[in-house]
Structures are given as C-alpha cells and as structure tokens.
Write a structure and sequence with these properties.
Strand content: 15-25%
Number of strands: 9
Shape: globular
Largest sheet: 7 strands, mixed
Order of helices and strands: HHHHHHEEHEHEHEEEHEEHH
Helix content: 40-55%
Distance between the termini: 59 Å
Structural class: alpha/beta
Number of domains: 1
Number of helices: 12
Radius of gyration: 20 Å
Length: 318
Amino acid sequence: MNRESRAADAAIGTPRGRARLPALRRQLGECIVLPAVATLLPWPLAWRTMRALTAREHFFGPETLRAQPICDAQGFVPDAPLWRRQYRLTRAVDHVDPAISALRSDRWMGRHLRVEGDPVPSGPSVFVGFHYGTGFWSLRHLRRLGHRVSFVSAPVDPAHWRDEPLRLAFIRWRQANVARAGGAPVIYVGGSSDKIRAALRAGTSVLGLIDVPEATTSTVTVRLLGRDARFPDGLLRIGVSERVPLIGYVASLDAGTGARCLRFTRLPDDPAKALHALAALLDEAIRADPAAWHFWSEWPRLAVRVTDLRDDGTAGLG
C-alpha cells in the first residue's frame, strides 16, 4: 500500500471522512451508475432499471426532501411515497439525458421523443422553458430543425461543489454537452445582454429557462398556482427588440414508457403578455404532474410576498 492509499484510508477513518461517505456514494450513484445504465442498456430496459433504482430513497435524497414539504404545502402531494418516487425518476431522466444524447442518433431521438403544438419558426428565435420535466432534448430537436441554439445559463461556481468533485466534473461535462447539442456556445448570465443580441443577429436562436430573479432584475408579476409570482422579462424584451419570434415550450416525461414530449407554443410579441402566457403553461404543467417541477425548493423565492407589490401591482424589490 503506497503513501497516498494509506492517507486516503486514514482520512476515511476520521469523523470528517466518514461524514463524506454518504455524499461520495450519492455522487457515484448519480454521476456514474445512472448514466451508465441509461447509455449502456436499450432504452426500454434502461427505463425499467431506472424506475427500480429511483424507487429507493438513495437517489436525489436531499433534493427530494427539500421539495416535498413545499409541494405538500400547496396541496399537491396526496401520496407522499409515490410523489417522491416520481420526483426522483423525473430528475434522474433529466440528469442522464445529456449522456444519452452524446451517444444516440437523431433516429433514436425520433423513436423516443414526441413533438406537439405550434410549428417552430425557421429563423432565429427566443425559446423559453422551465425547470420542469426533461428538457434537454429541446436542444437536439431544434438543432435537427436547422437551428443553432445558445443556452442561457448561470455560470458554474466550483466553490459550491467543493465537497463533491465528481458532481462538479459531471456538471461541467453536462454544460459541454449542452453546447454540443445546441450547436452554439452557452451564454452565461451576468452581462449577457450584448451576447444574446449578437447571437440573434448572427442567426443563432437563444434558449433560456424561467429562473428566480435577482433583486435588481426587471420582472413581471404573473399568476402561478393561485399566487402572484415574479418572472424575469429581460430575455423576452431582447427578443422583442430584435424582432424575433418568442416561443414557449414544456418538456414532459411519459410515465408509462419514459418517452419525452415537447410541446411548443407561440407567444405574444409583448414581454408582459408572453410571461402571462408562460405562467399559464407552467401552471397547467405543474397541476398535471407536480412531481415533474424541479423548482419546488425555489417556490418561496419565486412567489411574491404582499409587501413586494407596489401600488400599481408590479413587483418591487422588497
């Protein structure tokens, strides 16, 4: 046994080392085992295996435990064990889809992806989705239609994953696959407006997800789950000013077969009206499958407190 092996064994024997073991097991299970199952097995068998694996509490446990009580408080958890299984399964499929995409052809995608709704324009457009369901294949589908798509994303903060190096590596690999699937570089938020405009003017479409707005972000107040919520409008305002179509989409998972479904909706050419339409799409999707929303843990930050509303009903900074 070499010096490095003895040091590693000694570290594991310490209280801090033992505390890291569950996190290491989660990283191995979620970043190695699940992607391996999804890519090495034919999809019908992989789907059944993933359903069996995610029936166990070991996968995505912290995320599930954070999300369930918030969803339950909204009245959407009639069967807690079933809800947790569905939440873990949807999250697992969304988690491994970049790995599947890296190894599968458009022909595979055609067999396992259903596309519904309004026709997608042929020119550069702004696409807006949600932290819901299994949305990775939106990039591959749009690429197949001839779009180059830049995904708008928050930058990866290595400090946040200091104790989970394997997960950090997986996240970085996933971001690389996002760029590969879309055929265009990822645009990271923080001074991104000029890059978004440049991409649209160069003929590249831009895709972003509704996220929790920062305190200084321009927002529109919409109705979601019977509450007022703040949706950021920056990407849509850029799209309108650049005179490109605005398209919303919902990505869902067929609970029986594991097939993915994309439903596209043409949005009004007005940022506020577009956000109200997006809120209606998300509201309908959450009510249809509450466990498919990955953003339950962020709902308290997304929803507007009464004190946050100005006299005119728009969102303030409180």
